[in-house]
Specification:
The protein is flat. The chain has a two-stranded antiparallel sheet. It starts with a strand and ends in a 5-residue tail after the last helix. By secondary structure, it is mainly alpha-helical. It folds into two domains: 83 residues, no CATH class; 41 residues. The chain has five helices and two strands, in the order βααβααα. It comes from Azotobacter beijerinckii.
Length: 161
Amino acid sequence: MGSIGVTVAGFGFVGAMEKLGVERRNYTSGEHKSLLDPYSPQKPDEVELWNDQLRLTHEKFIEAVKSGRGERLRADTPNLFSGLLWNATEAKAIGLIDGFGSIETVARDLIQAEHLKEFNEEPNPLSRLADRLGASIGAGFAGGAVQSVLEAFKSQKVLGQ
């Protein structure tokens, strides 16, 4: 599945921070360096800047698809560039793709590569041990941190209890 669209997502924590008595401290240089900071109230001019960037990026994306697909693309397809999802069958019917395949089948069929070699770094024993230890410590910390946050919420009656 795929779609032709551009998105930026985030969260706004300002209200939660106020309820918890958390003060935001952010030091930057440059007028828009902390653009759309989730810990600060949204600024209409910065939202407009982001929307302009999204629009420009979407336009470039559309140009690239049209240029790359050429005559194969049914550009008159309703909602083609709206961000809707297209499954593989639909994508083929409207010219977004030429066919169905995997990396292996495309390599075999287009460039006659019968065998692909994967280049994955093998972790050494010390790295594997550190990963396991880090995961264990992280899980313990996360469990304790979640419990602490829940207790703080309860004591502040943030959760309505």
